[in-house]
Amino acid sequence: MRQHSGIGVLDKAMTVLHAVADEPCNLSLLCERTGLPRATAHRLAVGLETHRLLIRNAQGLWAPGPALAELAATAKDTLVDASSYVLPRLREITGESVQVYRRDGLDRICIASMEPPTGLRDTVLVGARLPMTAGSGAKVLAAWADLPVQRALLAEAKYTDRTLSEVRRRGWAQSIAERESGVASVAAPIRDGAGTVIAAISVSGPIDRMGRKPGARWAADLLAAADAIQKRL
């Protein structure tokens, strides 16, 4: 479930763009991926093609267009910029992989990531889309999400409503082999200037190094890192 703006044609156009992001598609596949009627999907795709947001490749399939790259080149993400100043120090302190996640509907997207130079790592690439049903980062983002999102997640999550209440109370979350076997993690919320939770900062690594209570070890450092990012925002 993606976020909706309430502007129907804009939301449908974004659905079309996301549908071709992973793999180019023809009209039939576009309708299947988006759930849009054939005429609507075709009209939107042709319109996006006019603006060079979509192109037709050599096989005649719709694919992301050059205008997307042109727009991305000029885009500035203040959260990513702020994180770039803070993550190196957090990685140095913990010796583990560090990430920043932002919620997108019922998923979370890694928008910043750094790995330790040596040793076994928990590699999460920038742009990776992960479920919101497991992991410390997921718990943090779910704990401060609105109620409809929480209800949708709790139906399949490895955590409970009580868990989210505990995360809000203590201000951080931890997980042991939830998202991936053998991996532990700790996460804390990143807030904007108004105090709204906009992302989660996380440290993750092998359980053998992180231990079974990673929060006791790294929560204070994560909270300090989250506060440093907020100040830069």
Key attributes of the depicted protein:
single chain; alpha+beta; Beta-Lactamase; two-stranded antiparallel ribbon; 21% strand
How would you portray this structure in words?
The protein has 233 residues and is α+β, with helices and mostly antiparallel strands. The chain has two domains: 8-74, Winged helix-like DNA-binding domain superfamily/Winged helix DNA-binding domain (Arc Repressor Mutant, subunit A, Orthogonal Bundle), CATH 1.10.10.10; 78-232, Beta-Lactamase (2-Layer Sandwich). 47% of the residues lie in helices and 21% in strands. It contains ten helices and eight strands. The protein has helices at residues 8-21, 27-34, 38-50, 66-74, 78-94, 136-143, 147-154, 161-170, 207-210, 214-232, and strands at residues 54-56, 62-64, 97-104, 107-114, 129-131, 173-176, 183-191, 197-206. Strands 5-4-3-8-7-6 form a six-stranded antiparallel sheet, with helices on both faces. A two-stranded antiparallel sheet has the order 1-2. A hairpin with a 2-residue loop joins strand 3 and strand 4 (107-114). The longest helix has 19 residues, at 214-232. The mean pLDDT is 92. Residues 7-66 form the HTH iclR-type domain. Keywords: DNA-binding, Transcription, Transcription regulation.
Summarize the structure.
GO terms for molecular function: DNA binding; DNA-binding transcription factor activity. It holds the Pfam family IclR_C. With 233 residues, this protein is α+β, with helices and mostly antiparallel strands.
